[in-house]
Amino acid sequence: MAITLQQFGIDKLSSAERLELIEKIWDSLSEQVAPAEVPEWHLPILAERRAQDEAHPGEGKPWHEVFARLKSHS
Length: 74
What we know:
The chain is mainly α. It has helices spanning 15-32, 43-55, 63-72. It is 55% helix and 0% strand. The chain starts with 14 loop residues before the first helix and ends with a helix.
């Protein structure tokens, strides 16, 4: 079964709402994806990103904060 944007009303969401939905879906994956489901080739990339996060904690921003800042400048 192919999922469409229209089927769930996603096509009617604003850009900000779509980004928020993406963030919520992304965050939910870490709670539900088992380590065995992660492809082997992802592991080095994840390790590199984890090392970057540990070396520079708190530098990243959630999408909704970035989008709000960009929206306030327009």
